Amino acid sequence: MKGARSLLIITSLFVLNACASLGIFSGAKNEYDQGIAFFNRGHYEEAIPHFEKATEIDPDFADAYLYLGRSCLNLGKWVQAIAPLRTALRLSPDKSQIQVVSILADALFGAASSEAKKGNFQTSIGFLREALELQPESQRAKNELFSALITFGGQLLSWGNVTQAITTFNEAIQLSPNNATGYLWLSKAFFKGGDYMKALQSVKDAIQIDPTNKNAQSFFRELMME
Fold first, then answer.
1. Alpha-carbon distance 127 to 17, whole Å?
2. Residue 189 pLDDT > 70, yes or no?
3. Residue 63 and residue 100: Cα distance in Å, rounded?
4. Which residues, including other chains, have CB under 8 Å from residue 172's CB and lie 6 or more apart?
5. Are 95 and 151 members of one domain?
6. Of 75, 101, 136, which residue constitutes the final position of a domain?
7. For position 202, which CATH number holds?
8. In terms of Cα–Cα distance, which of 163, 162, 132 is closest to 146?
9. Domain for residue 11, yes or no?
10. In degrees rounded to 5, what are phi and psi of residue 120?
11. Where residue 83 falls among pLDDT bands split at 50, 70, 90?
12. Considering the domain boundaries, does residue 219 fall inside one?
């Protein structure tokens, strides 16, 4: 008798849990479907609250995070798109991760560009590093990160932060070892830091990579006159 009663209690709990889970799914799916209706009509601002609500009801709803990120992306809200897209990537099955990676990379590139225009080069570089980590073979990620590092290194140099500038230029060189620009800026950083021999070697490396680089040739002549 006790065994039958225990079985009844367990069964009832199972049914209650199942109903609760079904209710959560139904509520989240309803919000998601309303969001999709707005999204498909290009009404991204109106779609966002529904996708947000869907993720609140069901924190494991990968597609709701994906479309929340895409809605932000379509509105040019690059930074706001990143967090939900990161979550979408974490929750997505392997077969759909390639698509999410591509969308997240677009958000990171957009955010990096936006932050660079504001002069927030460290934040921009952080986004580009993440983009490169997502897509290690992406030439776009390598090129944009290289440019951001060179710009930030030049800024550091103008502030007199020679040590960090050297570190930044070295990172740029590791990304693009056949680009003379990185070696030229490294040479300028060494020279500003008082290390003449390393400055001379670095500008020679720049000229060896690109013998037609007039800026490198000019700086080399300046060093030889010292």
1. 41
2. yes
3. 10
4. 145, 146, 149, 150, 153, 179, 182, 185
5. no
6. 136
7. 1.25.40.10
8. 132
9. no
10. -90, 70
11. very high
12. yes
Angle, vertex CA 219, rays to CA 158 and CA 183, nearest 5: 70
State the average pLDDT over residues 5-24. 43
Does the residue 5 lie in any domain?
A: no
Would you state the pLDDT for residue 5? 53
- 64 lies in the same domain as 86: yes
Helices (H), 75-213: 78-91, 97-117, 121-134, 139-158, 162-175, 180-192, 196-209
Tell me: pLDDT of 185 over 50: yes
pLDDT for 42: 98
Number of domains composing the chain: 2
The range of the structural domain enclosing residue 50 comes to 32-136
pTM: 0.84
Percent of residues in the chain assigned helix, strand, coil, to nearest 5: 85, 0, 15
Task: Answer yes or no: is pLDDT of 18 > 60.
Answer: no
Residues 170 and 210 in one domain: yes
Tell which of 136, 168, 200 closes a domain. Answer: 136
Report yes or no on 12 lying in a domain.
no
User: What is the C-alpha separation between 103 and 97, in angstroms, rounded?
Assistant: 10
List, for residues 47-60, the tens digit of each pLDDT value.
999 999 999 999 99
Q: How far apart are CA 61 and CA 66, in angstroms?
A: 9
- In angstroms, the CA 46 to CA 38 distance is 6
Neighbouring CB atoms inside 10 A of 37's CB total 13
The arithmetic mean of pLDDT across residues 100-110, rounded, is: 97
